[in-house]
Amino acid sequence: MAVDEALRQLLLLARAAPLTACEQVALRQADGRVLAEDLRAAIDLPPWDNSAMDGYALRFDDLQAQPLPVTQTVFAGEAPGPLQAGTCARVFTGAPVPAGADCVQLQENCEVDAQGRVSSLTPLRRGANIRLQGNEIRAGAPLLAAGTVLKPIALGVLASQGITQVPVVRRPRVALLSSGDELAGEGATLGLGQIHDSNRVVLRALLERLGCEVIDLGCVPDEPALLRAALVGVQGVELIITSAGVSVGDADCIGALLRESGDVQLWKLAIKPGKPLTFGHVGGVPLLGLPGNPGSALVTFLLLARPYLLARMGVERVEPMRVPVVAGFAWPKAGKRQEYLRVRLDGGRARLLENQSSATLLSAVQAHGLLEVPAGETFEAGDVLDFISFDGLVG
Length: 395
Ligand code: AMP
Ligand code: MG
Prior knowledge:
Layout: H1 3-16, E1 22-26, E2 39-40, E3 50-51, E4 55-58, E5 70-74, E6 88-91, E7 103-106, E8 110-112, E9 118-120, E10 130-131, E11 142-144, H2 152-160, E12 165-169, E13 173-179, H3 199-209, E14 213-220, H4 224-231, E15 239-243, H5 253-260, E16 264-266, E17 271-272, E18 278-282, E19 285-290, H6 294-312, E20 322-327, E21 338-346, E22 349-352, H7 362-366, E23 369-373, E24 384-389
Parallel strand pairs: 5-6, 13-14, 13-15, 15-19, 17-21, 20-22
Antiparallel strand pairs: 1-12, 2-11, 3-10, 4-6, 4-7, 8-9, 16-18, 18-19, 20-24, 21-22, 21-23, 23-24
The structure holds adenosine monophosphate (AMP) and magnesium ion (MG).
């Protein structure tokens, strides 16, 4: 199954089961959360006409009557009186422009005579250097749409509106389990054949950064009865994510469990790394079985699990952003599967990291992101391909 088709199916399921529960959180706790309702502007922004510069506010029509005496000084935060005709006001950036003034001349373009009267030295147009009330947004206009992921800039937009409490989608609860006889307990010294569990650590952090609450089910051996005991009866979660136990060598423990429930939705993706990936339900709870190799678990999480969870939260654009980059190397041999290569961007060119093994995380930590090579395609150095940056994906 092509990656796009698997994603399409997963998103269809996710959109059909949106997380509707919502909660109010303080703005300072809303970073990374998903907005649950459409919000409209509460106030005009700017709330009043204000000066964009340090200078002098005046009436355009008084420019013929220069020099103009200064009749008031307005600092940001002060409320000015109306501007008397034939005078100007000393104003600073962000200060309200006195009623009657319709332009601001920059202080460096003004000459102040011995009597303190001001002349403008350069031409000025009506409205110059005034930020008009409501220019950014009018009260009542759409501000942010439901499904917006609240990142620092969005939080700033809300703060500028005086919004202190935000309705957000409840955190999705995700149960996380690593399967594998080879996984040693946390902190244990490795016996022959054993490895430390890194997938659960990576996946937990990725999930938490997505705003999920993680229910850690620990490590479970490749033993159908034990897996069943761990997974059947997990309730109150939106998703179960497992790693490993989906390939033939594992006697396909996770797949077997899903088949018991009569429902395995995906199997064998045309993706490299990450071919063995399963989706199904246990006890009515969706389960996404990621492959065990750390590189495969990472890529399938980013390309499939992450969009699925974002879609459940009502986020519109769920796929990682792709940007075109120039390949700094050739790819002469076409693969059967869509391939995700670990690359670094040096001088705007993608450089292939030496170790592309799905078993290693070290080259993934050195990579800036993934170069997407469609199945069946080759390329030359200098060709342009889609790049998925790790920046932002994990935030
Ligand atoms: P599997 O999908 O079970 O065939 O596992 C593929 C590879 O990933 C094997 O080399 C496993 O030892 C390794 N692996 C499985 N689970 C984990 C894990 N939780 N952390 C790190 N490596 C793992
Ligand atoms: Mg295994």
